[in-house]
Design the sequence.
């Protein structure tokens, strides 16, 4: 900042030159400005007394960004707001080029990247990052370049055993064209280096052999708990993705089963804590169909000898368990195929075939044909 003093008939005037932040006012909240000028050089002039007590916070430089549209470059004037008795000598630059672009935001998880130089015989326990997600704001093109967000504590920081406040860093596929902001830009990391072998929680994989009986299939296999903790060197733990149970034979199983099953320790590691799990195998019943042909059509709701049904028989598909449906006959399951004539007024008439099964273990799933033609016997005699 520099100044000089002049004097005329009106008194002593002082001129001062300084840098002022440039504001962009009334910009649509969905837009951001590309390559924005951050500050301008302003020269002002005023009476010596007024300049001596001037509050520079009352000097504001701004660009009116109202009604700007994304994807278009504009040349806008720089406006300078001054207190009374103060005049503007110059503003450099007096105009700026602004290019609005569409702004987007995206919530992303924050990853903790552990240092590679953790001393042998120590591992990081109870790692937690807060917040777990932060908001990334920038142009749509730049946000698409963000692959991950990371915090990277050092061994020295972790050895302090205290909560750390670390900057969140971008992992990006290529350089950004504009500014990309994070909210918040820092994350708290909790964790402590402890002595011993590292531990890791992995899913439990239930090992089964054989198949249930022919009327059932495995519907679900559940272990309680769902995860187990393993302990070993970091290089070994990195290769362990699951812990297996001992093999359970479910050959010819016909009902749900719950067992206590030991776990197998992975090669090169040990189980820490849980050594066995409760294993529940849930079965689902299988269904199969059988076609019965030439099933006679019965007449209900009227005297049978007064009517002629065409066709007089149909095919029926019965559904039941595979082991029982093979031996099904119409008589063995109490199958009746009929047509109801209690509401018939005009003949001939096409009526839907109906079926009933006495056994609750079976049901009819298809009738072919599904309708028959019914005519009065006396009408046919006239013909």
Sequence:
């Amino acid at each position: 900042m520099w100044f000089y003093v002049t004097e005329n008939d009106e008194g002593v005037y002082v001129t001062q030159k300084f840098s002022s932040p440039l504001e962009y006012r009334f910009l649509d909240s969905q837009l951001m400005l590309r390559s924005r000028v951050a500050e301008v050089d302003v020269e002002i002039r005023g009476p010596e007394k007024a300049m001596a007590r001037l509050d520079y916070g009352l000097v504001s430089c701004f660009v009116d960004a109202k009604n700007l549209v994304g994807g278009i470059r504009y040349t806008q004037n720089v406006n300078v707001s001054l207190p009374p008795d103060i005049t503007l000598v110059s503003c450099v630059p007096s105009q700026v080029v602004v290019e609005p672009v569409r702004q987007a935001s995206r919530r992303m998880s924050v990853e903790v990247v552990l240092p590679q130089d953790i001393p042998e015989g120590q591992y990081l326990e109870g790692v937690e990052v807060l917040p777990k997600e932060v908001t990334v704001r920038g142009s749509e093109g730049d946000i698409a370049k963000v692959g991950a967000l990371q915090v990277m504590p050092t061994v020295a920081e972790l050895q302090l055993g205290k909560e750390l406040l670390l900057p969140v860093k971008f992992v990006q596929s290529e350089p950004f064209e504009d500014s990309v902001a994070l909210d918040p830009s820092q994350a708290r990391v909790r964790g402590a280096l402890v002595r011993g072998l590292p531990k890791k929680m992995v899913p439990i994989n239930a090992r089964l052999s054989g198949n249930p009986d022919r009327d059932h299939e495995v519907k679900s296999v559940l272990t309680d708990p769902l995860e187990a903790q393993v302990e070993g060197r970091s290089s070994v733990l990195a290769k362990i993705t699951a812990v297996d149970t001992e093999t359970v034979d479910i050959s010819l199983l016909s009902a749900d089963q719950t067992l206590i099953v030991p776990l197998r320790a992975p090669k090169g590691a040990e189980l820490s804590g849980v050594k066995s799990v409760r294993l529940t195998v849930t079965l689902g019943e299988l269904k199969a169909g059988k076609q019965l042909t030439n099933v006679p059509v019965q007449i209900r709701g009227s005297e049978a000898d007064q009517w002629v049904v065409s066709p007089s028989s149909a095919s029926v598909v019965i559904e039941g368990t595979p082991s029982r449906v093979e031996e099904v006959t119409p008589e063995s399951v109490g199958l009746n195929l009929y047509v109801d004539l209690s509401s018939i007024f005009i003949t001939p008439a096409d009526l839907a075939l109906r079926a009933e099964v006495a056994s609750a273990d079976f049901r009819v799933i298809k009738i072919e044909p599904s309708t028959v033609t019914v005519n009065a016997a006396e009408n046919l005699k006239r013909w």
User: Anything to note?
Assistant: The chain has a mean pLDDT of 89. The radius of gyration is 42 Å.
